[in-house]
# Entry
Amino acid sequence: MSTWNPWKGCHRKSEGCKHCYIFRANDRKKIDTNIVYKTDEFDKPLQKDKKGNYKIKPGQMVYLCFNADFLVEEADEWRNEIWEIIRIRTDLTFMFLTKRIERFYIGLPEDFKDNFDNLIVCCTIENQKRADERLPIFKALPIKHKMITIQPMLERIDISKYLDDDIEYVVVGGESGKDVRPLNYDWVLDIRQQCIDANVSFEFRQLGSIFIKDKKTYNVRKQYLCAQARKAGINYKKS
# Structure
């Protein structure tokens, strides 16, 4: 596993961004997250060591733009270079998340449909409004590997009409931090059942810092959010 942030900075897009971890972390460092800028790892997957070998070894998953949005507006002029790097490093698998799926075609390579088997795109939603806004767009795109990320999950959501063989995975999680919005376990189980019914893989990624189960509310420390989600044992792999 490796991370690659060719640029940093973003803008709040919708309800799920209210307590964004990127903004919180930058606020502590007195960094203005709304300033989008290229980083010194812009060409990281092409960087080589003294022996001429790629520093990012073949076979890895590369998490792309996890400190920004890959489709943020300011990066439009840079994104074509990133597409070319992904094309070159076919020995790596790249993954990015976005709340701006409606911008996917901007600067997209003409041969995208016939290439880029090594890319996973995750469309992020947080409530029913954003599901019905983004997922029809997402479903129509010529992306070979599609995931839906519901994180933070803010309410009960029905995505059953969007689930078929075109969607490989659904990931669900809550919000972390102080004064965040709660995650209800019943909502998680409901999405899980929708995935089982459609035979789509499902992962419960993390609890919320405020977590409701069996009508009881729990305050969960950050270090336990992912571990407790795994402990629930409700992940599902498509048959």
Notes: The CA atoms of residues 184 and 212 lie 5 Å apart. Residues 185-198 form the longest helix (14 residues). The longest strand covers residues 119-125. The chain has a mean pLDDT of 96.
